[in-house]
Amino acid sequence: FVNVGGSTIRNVYRNRPEEKNQPMTKEEIIENYGDVCPDILFADGFDEAIIGTCFKTHRVIYSYQKCIDELCKDMEVFDAMEYMDFNVLGSHVGDMTPIWLMDCSV
């Protein structure tokens, strides 16, 4: 568990040794948490950017940088950042709106 801004984030990693440190897939999150929170929301096209779920709210957490990387497969970096900031981060779809985590490197 990681505490970020007062919220506890659960890393949703698989327990199988051959998949150590690999985040769960969208399907695995639904399978494991769908009964607890049937209203989990996912962002279309960003399944590879999932890095965890919030322990308290069960909101899905995405890596901002991995989302940009996904968008850069079809557009330039500046266009990807503009698209992400305006169309994704600017959207609020209720209490289960995903969390977008800005990756930090030291």
What does this structure look like?
This protein is an alpha+beta fold. The protein is built from three helices and five strands. 26% of the residues lie in helices and 18% in strands. It has a five-stranded mixed beta sheet with strand order 1-2-3-4-5. Helix 2 packs across helix 3. It is globular. The two termini are 20 Å apart. The N terminus is likely disordered.
The strand order across the widest sheet is 1-2-3-4-5
Secondary-structure element order, N to C: EEHEEHHE
Proportion of helical residues: 25-40%
Number of DSSP helical runs:
3
Largest sheet: 5 strands, mixed
Overall shape: globular
Structural classification: alpha+beta
Q: List the uncertain runs.
A: 1-10, 12-17
Rg over CA atoms, rounded to whole Å, is 14 Å
The span between the termini is 20 Å
Q: What integer is the average pLDDT?
A: 82
User: Which oligomeric state applies?
Assistant: single chain
| Number of strand segments | 5
Provide the β-strand percentage band: 15-25%
